[in-house]
């Protein structure tokens, strides 16, 4: 039944897409005014990062006249010196007010003694749009804009509103709900936290973080729908927020049969939400030392599972069983190096 | 399961509300839609013939370009012609392959000019005004991405302008994209050098670069085009066949405490310093554009050629001052030459900034043998240090010298010249211009400038070398330009940064430099600037009231200025120009 429904679902989407593309609206005038409306509501965020693949910048959008900003929950926010630059070049310090990691959402607030009275998006207006809807994407991808330069604008079409396959080997994503998949290339460094709007200026969603399908090595351009985010945005702003993470902490405990050190790996201190899995040192004569791993190697795969952080590395290694074949892929400079070893018996 | 239940009713509603009307409308599509579609088709039809597919002379690499004149001048990127050889093959959408020759390169701006050969009626693109481009405007990128088109029909990608006045960091000091247009129209390897058109089919930029990062060198939603307005500033420079240089102010700026943009460093020998700019001054506007960020300042500086004079407004102690600053060269000649010398290097081996790279066609790593130039076009390429193709400089020199001799031909007067007359508001003067020296008698004073020592001592004070300047004057007007150490066509600029556009010839001799200004519309000689050394204050001579001598025009009045301040005006009453035979006697 589910299978049939899915096929139907795809078919209907295609029909919709086809029919709507065949009747494009002449929307030049309204898209121009939407751009003029939206750009002052987007902000450039600069924070932690700036090394390797950790970008120290992202995008956000104003959701209150007092300077509340919705943005992506990411390591960029993991700093005491978070700075936000408005479209007109005004620069503010900002603080993280709250976050909902399961929605990849964070709310930050500009620090200001004065009343700001900034232009903002009304996130209560839970607009939903279907496939074929033309959209504009706003983000500071690649950090093209600095100072008083406005962020970049992309155009595209909603391809689907669906969830992303979060299966093993597919998209590594903590968020489980619906997303808008769009054909504008929003999956770029620094774009996460930006906004997508309809051509006539309705806020549809927040651009998601960069995720890649490990199976097909493709990147998906998606946004988190505003109707999903709206409640949490409001709760964080009004201070009535309880993170869903706090509620269901004691989840099914993953097995922890092995730790990195059991193979001779000493990882860098796990200080960030997602600390990249860099090897700090390799214990002499250990299994990985013999296999040739070195300090500063970045672990990218464990048995075909993408390793995004020290946490996922620990989790993947924990699942192993004695006698398993362990295949590690590390990045050294710009090379990928693959090693294989036999998992030793468990140490009690 | 939940999701399926949620989606099904929603989709059903959408289906009813969207598909049905769509089908119902199928027979009668909104006329506005059809009109918009027709406009797109018409624009593509109209501009496609001007799009060029460029192939290296040895069949290696390649890229795109766009014709901008009927006699075959086409714009492309420097990084496309680098490595393509001096002669290229270019395909147009008529399916024909044309020979083309390199004209000039601008390695800093990543622009190159080539000339397609064999026709005088090439289709060409109409230039737009890139300063009018707005975010959200539709933009067509055309070219030959991935070298797909073997029949030279351009590939068209359609998108919107994502940002204007963007600044993209250079690799060192080359390949800097300033004041450029950012688009989400797909820019891929092979698109480089191709045109960006606005919705009306006007050329607004040259595509050359993208932000790529993790996907390798394919479109990732951010492409950059060099603005056509920048290229307009460089147009005559590009036609000069030189290796064209960009400009420096001789000062750097940084963001001050009140978010003002202030002078952070300044060279004392820079023209900006001479004109009064000092450390800590706030830059209010530059080239008429208000300055609010360092990027903005770099954006503006990057779109002008070295040697141009640009208005700058600065503020000190609440007082605003406007100065006209002559921009200095960004590079030493040797640096430019070196960059040009890398012509045969594959550009993707060159230094590239961060993530922003010109999209590249993959090529074999074996260095191709340069194909021999087509026999009948061989004469169109002349190598010379400092030039991309000296042939085109000669053409421009000839054009201006021809105009000069048509208005006043003194080529048979290579001897001593004696000019006498009155200084306005002053006494009588006599100027004697000879090979060995220049004499100037005015009132009771006599100045004698020897030309044999190369040392400029006995100049009238506060003129910056007026007498040495007149030596250049005599050499040029008497058709002895071969006696200059260097003599070339520079390009064009606005006279004194604010008057009419002029063509510029440059002459150097024993370290002295003169720049000659010809009105672009009637090619009349308007005057010249003279520099005792590269960084000296300028001695300007402007010609007024031409008089006729035996049917030949000769300046009737010389206005002499030093550093833009008037020094004296000499009204010439009698002219005696000797032939070289006379002098020998």
How would you portray this structure in words?
With 348 residues, chain A is an alpha+beta fold. Chain A has helices at 2-22, 28-38, 226-238, 244-247, 287-291, 310-319; strands spanning 42-46, 57-62, 68-72, 82-85, 91-100, 105-110, 134-139, 152-162, 179-182, 195-198, 203-207, 212-213, 218-219, 222-225, 265-267, 279-282, 298-302, 305-306, 325-332, 335-342. Chain A folds into 2 domains: 23-247, Thrombin, subunit H; 260-342, Pdz3 Domain, CATH 2.30.42.10. In chain A, 18% of the residues lie in helices and 30% in strands. Mean pLDDT of chain A is 85; it is low at 10-27. Chain B has 10 helices and 32 strands. Chain B has an 11-stranded antiparallel sheet. In chain B, strands 1-2-3-6-5-4 form a 6-stranded antiparallel barrel. Mean pLDDT of chain B is 87; it is low at 1-7, 343-355 and 363-368. Chain B is globular and about 95 Å long. Chain B folds into 3 domains: 32-243 and 330-382, Thrombin, subunit H, CATH 2.40.10; 247-328, Pdz3 Domain, CATH 2.30.42.10; 394-584, outer membrane lipoprotein receptor (LolB), chain A (Clam). Classes of the chains: A alpha+beta (348), B alpha+beta (585). Chains A and B meet through helix 1, helix 2 and strand 8 of A and helix 1, helix 2, strand 8 and helix 6 of B.
